[in-house]
Amino acid sequence: MDSVLRAAALYLVLLVLFRAAGRRTLSDMTAFDFVLLLVIGEATQQALLGEDFSLTNAVLVIATLVLADVGLAWATLRWPRLGRLVTGLPMVVVADGKPLEDRMRRARVTRDDVLEAARRTQGLARLDQVRYAVVETNGGISVIPKDAAGGGRGLSRRAAPPTA
User: Fold this and answer.
1) DSSP 150
2) In 3-state terms, what secondary structure has residue 155?
3) Is the separation of the CB atoms in 122 and 145 below 8 Å?
């Protein structure tokens, strides 16, 4: 039972830590980020298994983590507010070619990040060609060009920038 409680507690701690670290943390990993993730994995393994390296304990820990993940996925479907708390909402960081600096800081996104996504996904070279750039809940950046069909009106009011 100790392993199950440790696994559940560590799952919650890691969930909170990675949520606090921001969505961009895992979307664009550098070599240092990868090494850090390996170290975290090793530390997590030691915390979960403790001194008991038996197959039974490993199965209990793995089952607890999978059930916690499935339970959280089910709960976020059942209670949308919890889903928004756990995964967040998409955030517009560029509107009509103008960077929204406070949102970019909050999402830890630079102009270079947005321009890279614009080049990679839309072939755009300048911010003034971007109608909207949105940091998605998975940390990726979606770019809607100014000449896109529909004019980018498909964004929800929540994701769209406030009108002044």
Assistant:
1) G
2) coil
3) yes
Residue 98: both structure tokens together: 């103008």
Q: What is the DSSP secondary structure assignment for residue 162, as one 8-state letter? A: P
Distance between CA atoms of 88 and 82, rounded to whole angstroms? 9
Give the tokens for residue 91. Answer: 């955030």
5-27: burial string, b at 16+ Cβ within 10 Å, e else? ebbbebbeeeeeeeeeebbbbee
Instruction: Give the integer Cα–Cα distance in Å for 31 and 60.
Output: 32
70-105 pLDDT, tens digit per residue, is 888 899 999 999 988 888 889 999 999 999 999 999
- Helices within the chain (DSSP H only): 2-21, 24-27, 31-49, 55-78, 80-87, 101-107, 111-122
Residue 109's nearest CA partner among 122, 94, 88 is 94
Q: What is the pTM of this model?
A: 0.65
